[in-house]
Amino acid sequence: MLTTEESRYWNRRYLELYPQTLGKQTMKKLILIFALSLVPIVATADYAIRGEGNFTCPDYVSARQTNNAKLYSSISWVQGFITGVNYQNALPEDSDSFIGRDLAAASLVTWLENYCRSNPQDYLADAAEALVAELKGKD
Q: What pLDDT is attached to residue 137?
């Protein structure tokens, strides 16, 4: 085992031989990179998706084209999702939340179709999240 003095000597010697490696600036950068890697860039939460939220965007577009029962259950699911968001937002200290209160059903159908055509890899739940985010920005 090296003494403290020996350790300092070899550290100085190493830096003299290899000044570009592990200098103070480099070490500070490494520490900063490590610290930043511990902080999430985007906070996301997982949640269980039940019912029509698992409907794929291509399936929604197909239901829209054929105007079948899946279309109506999907619309109802998204309206319920928005209601759930409003409920959660209104819980703290009797606050109010009216996200999407003026959104007509026909506008919802069109918005969902446009979103799903642009994002065929997504699910109806993803579309509902994007819709809520857009509606929040308008309030």
A: 82
Taking the C-alpha atoms of 80, 83, 85 and 86 in order, what is their torsion angle to the nearest 10 degrees? 180
pTM of the full predicted structure? 0.65
Based on the domain organization, do 27 and 65 belong to the same domain?
no
Residue 82's domain spans which residues?
51-138
Q: What is the dihedral of CA 62, 65, 68, 72, to 10 degrees?
A: 90
Are 57 and 122 part of one and the same domain? yes
| Measured CA angle at 80 (ends 67, 57), to 5 deg | 45
Tens of pLDDT along 66-85?
999 999 999 999 999 999 99
DSSP for residue 51: G
The SS3 assignment for 56 reads strand
